[in-house]
Automatic annotation (TrEMBL):
One of its GO terms (cellular component) is cytosol. InterPro entries: ARM-like, ARM-type_fold, HEAT_IPO9_central, TPR_IPO7/11-like. GO terms for biological process: protein import into nucleus. The keyword Transcription regulation does not apply. Residues 138-381 form the Importin-9 central HEAT repeats domain. PANTHER family: IMPORTIN-7, 8, 11, IMPORTIN-9. Keywords: Protein transport, Transport. Pfam families: HEAT_IPO9_c, TPR_IPO11. Residues 482-772 form the Importin-7/11-like TPR repeats domain. This is Importin-9.
């Protein structure tokens, strides 16, 4: 409670506590000073309360306890070391904790494991404190050495994980609350705080524990492997830091030598006798694959392939799957081929036995195997695909498993010779689902629409699915179904192009279906999420069926504006603005007529659709995502301004934010006084947005540090009205494209072809820097009076950017 109060009542809480600190820490020292006893759970409970108090002191009152803190360090170490002895006897060596499940009056767990976790939590707080880390800096080596021992599997964990692979996978993946997890977190924090010194310490501690395990094994101990597994677990959990932190050559050599000895020696141990050690080896080998000898990696790869098909405990197969997922992509394909059919057979058996927790892991391994076995892909496709399709249908409502299954099918599809047989297998499964969508379980229709086919078999998919997909768009209220169906239609148009109209044998019917679908998706009363991908679909119609769409431009524009006005999702508005921008390009060189069209169309709460469109466009331009989208909208704004249409100046749009002078803005103030913006004429705003893009391109090209030098090199007098251009003003832009967006936009055309739905657009060929340079030069040359007038509203940086291109 005092810790909570200290944030607001610091002086009062400090004054209350200072007189009692010495006596408190004296009592804490007495309680922690004697060894932990296994038969005295009340003692653990008392120590837990002390640890909680100390934790609060370190977190909330560090300056007050500086002088007192050293008093409890030796007792704390005594508690830590003696707790390890009790924990080893009670939990690790199988003498069950008789007090497990013990709770205090508040319901807090009072078991031995909870006590140890609380101990780790306090040590973690100390290590994470710049003030107190120095207190234990001299003991880091011993602290790490003892911590590794706490990471050993308990008898309870061994029993649970031996019979329940699901729990093993869940605990490993989710890092469940336990001593093992708390111990690893402490080791990570020590390395983060102490860097190279801590790396030396963990390598030394791991070597000591490895040597101890060898001695225990030689002496005939049946549990020698536990400390070995804990050592490997510690090193693997810290693998990123161990490989990234700069350390001495001696330390790096010691680490690599230790790993080499562990993996070489333990691969020869009995897989049935020590299944958890084997599972840990398999899970760990890939983490260090960059520094492990190639021969050892190959040995483990073949051992993992073999283990998948053996009758071994489930944890071993889990570990083998993890190893294969990481090692197969880097393996020599020729060396793997002789084993690949056997591996597929074993994985299919495992797939049929897998439950929900292990299914993800098996599917991930199967995907790696498919990619590694492309040479035999046509042989495995008839075997694997039906199983995957059944599994996908069974788990379609589970996004993780269904996506994993689709990923494997995608890998099979990409394998040589597998596209056609896979599609012929998928279509009979999907068609009945899409024909009767109302009779399907939740998620099955949307999932079916997600199984898109590649270009060269799109007609096969079209013949089976086009009509059902259209019906889903026209009738469904499920946003997932509508989104996926829209993506399917976009793919049909993108791949089929003009030929799509004749595929069904009735071009007129196909045209009606495509237009009906667009009308439904642009319905202002449809939930916004259902229309989310309509922009991509309409764009394909414009790009690939331009003659058809030209007949319906007025209706399309009116529908787009209505859908924008009712949209609750910014991303939907942005995608629709891209459509309007593309229509601006389509109307060139008669852009004035497109503006005239918008002027005749009403828009709620605005003078006309043009006023509404430009109001939204100028607000959203800085939020538009994607290289293609930024390029299309930016150049369309330039086209609109180039018309110098008389109506442009009559439209006023959002300018810059008016800064509040009312002091700190609280939530209540913000509700009463929302942000206020200036209004500015549309031509000034467009020029401002274009200048912002120019600034981003110039910063990308020259870098902030070099920009002044470049300007110094420019000659003077290139512009007769230079003094007008540099006229000082205060208006600012409210948004501009991010550097990352423009960086992606500036790449070569080849880099943008990943988006197949926009790659075919000739506008992708535009070099935005050249386009804007040409625009500014022509604008200045054709109407310098208006140009200089608009430039007076720009910031100094915007004027400077324009001056550079005009002076070039």
């Amino acid at each position: 409670m005092l810790g909570t109060m200290s944030g607001v009542y610091k002086m009062e809480t400090n004054a209350l506590m200072v007189p009692m600190l010495t006596s408190w820490f004296s009592q804490f020292s007495i309680i922690m000073g004697h060894p932990v006893q296994s038969e005295d759970p009340d003692d653990w409970s008392l120590r837990m309360e002390v640890l909680k108090c100390l934790n609060q002191f370190v977190q909330n009152f560090p300056s007050l306890i500086d002088a007192e803190f050293g008093v409890i360090m030796r007792p704390l170490w005594e508690t830590f070391v003696s707790a390890l002895r009790v924990y080893e006897l009670s939990a690790i060596e199988g003498r069950d904790d008789p007090h497990e499940g013990r709770y205090d009056s508040d319901g807090a767990d009072q078991s031995l494991e909870s006590f140890v976790i609380q101990l780790f939590e306090f040590l973690l707080t100390i290590v994470g404190s710049a003030r107190f880390i120095k207190v234990i800096a001299q003991s880091v080596r011993e602290l790490m050495y003892h911590t590794i021992a706490f990471l050993q599997m308990t008898e309870q964990q061994i029993h649970t994980w031996s019979v329940d692979a699901n729990q093993y996978v869940a605990d490993e993946d989710d890092m469940a609350y336990s001593c093992r997890v708390s111990g690893v977190l402490l080791l990570e924090e020590i390395i983060n705080s102490c860097d190279g010194e801590a790396i030396d310490a963990i390598v030394e501690a791991a070597k000591r524990r490895y040597d101890e395990s060898r001695e225990a094994k030689a002496a005939g101990s049946s549990i020698w492997w536990r400390i070995r597994e804990a050592t490997i677990f510690a090193l693997t959990s810290l693998s990123d830091q161990l490989l990234e932190v700069e350390v001495s050559k001696s330390t790096r050599d010691q680490l690599l030598n230790l790993l080499d000895r562990i993996f070489t020696e333990d691969i020869g141990t009995g897989i049935h006798e020590y299944p958890f050690l084997y599972a840990r080896l398999f899970s760990s080998i890939a983490k260090f694959s960059s520094v492990i000898r190639h021969e050892i990696l190959e040995q483990f790869l073949y051992a993992a392939i073999k283990a998948i098909g053996m009758d071994v405990p489930p944890p071993v197969k889990v570990g083998a799957c993890r190893a294969l997922t990481q090692l197969l992509p880097e393996a020599n394909r020729e060396a793997v081929q002789p084993h690949i059919m056997g591996l597929f057979s074993s994985l299919i058996d495992l797939l049929n036995q897998a439950s929900e927790e292990t299914l993800h892991l098996v599917l991930e391994t199967l995907q790696a195997a498919v990619k590694a076995g492309y040479e035999v892909s046509t042989s495995i496709e008839p075997i694997v695909s039906p199983i995957l399709l059944n599994m996908w249908a069974k788990h379609v409502s589970d996004p993780f498993i269904s996506i994993d299954a689709i990923d494997v099918l995608e890998a099979i599809k990409n394998a040589p010779g597998c596209i056609c047989p896979l599609v012929s297998r998928v279509m009979p499964s999907i068609q009945p689902i899409l024909d009767k969508p109302q009779q399907q379980p939740d998620g099955l229709v949307a999932g079916s629409l997600d199984l898109n086919a590649p270009t060269d078999v799109v007609k096969v998919v079209h013949d089976a699915c086009f009509d059902p997909v259209i019906r889903i768009v026209l009738q469904s209220e499920d946003h997932s179904e509508l989104q996926n169906a829209t993506e399917c239609l976009a793919a049909f148009v993108s791949n089929g192009k003009q030929g799509l109209l004749s595929w069904s044998g009735d071009p007129g019917s196909t045209v009606r279906s495509l237009l009906d679908a667009s009308s439904r998706l642009l319905d202002p009363d449809l939930e916004s999420s259902g229309s989310l991908f309509v922009g991509s679909y309409i764009l394909q119609l414009i790009l690939h069926l331009p003659a058809l769409m030209a007949q319906h431009i007025p209706d399309l524009v009116a529908a787009v504006v209505r859908r924008m006005q009712s949209s609750q999702i910014a991303g939907l508005k942005s995608s629709l603005l891209v459509i309007l921008a593309r229509l601006v390009h389509m109307s060139a060189p008669n852009v004035e007529k497109f503006i005239d069209l918008l002027l005749t169309m009403p828009a709620e709460s605005h003078a006309n659709s043009f006023a509404y469109m430009m109001s939204e466009w100028t607000k959203q331009q800085g939020e538009i995502q994607g290289a293609y989208q930024i390029k299309v909208t930016t150049t369309a704004l330039a086209l609109l301004l180039s018309t110098r249409h008389a109506e442009l100046a009559k439209v006023h749009v959002q300018g810059h934010l008016i800064k509040s002078t009312a002091g700190i803005m609280t939530r209540s103030k913000a509700k009463l006084a929302p942000d206020q913006w200036t209004l500015m004429p549309l031509p000034e705003k467009i020029l401002s947005l274009l200048a912002d893009v120019l600034i981003e391109i110039q910063e990308q090209a020259f870098g902030d540090n070099d920009e002044d030098t470049d300007w110094e090199d420019l000659g003077e007098g290139n512009l007769e009205t230079e003094e007008d251009l540099l006229y000082s003003v205060s208006a600012t832009s409210s948004a501009r494209p991010s550097y990352d967006q423009l960086n992606a936009m500036a790449k070569d055309q080849d880099d943008s072809e990943g988006d197949l739905l926009t790659a075919a657009d000739p506008l992708n060929e535009i070099n935005l820097a050249s386009y804007l340079t040409d625009f500014f030069v022509k604008f200045f040359q054709n109407d310098s009076l208006m140009f200089n007038h608009l430039c007076q509203s720009l910031t100094a940086d915007q004027q400077k950017a324009i001056k550079q291109v005009l002076s070039g």
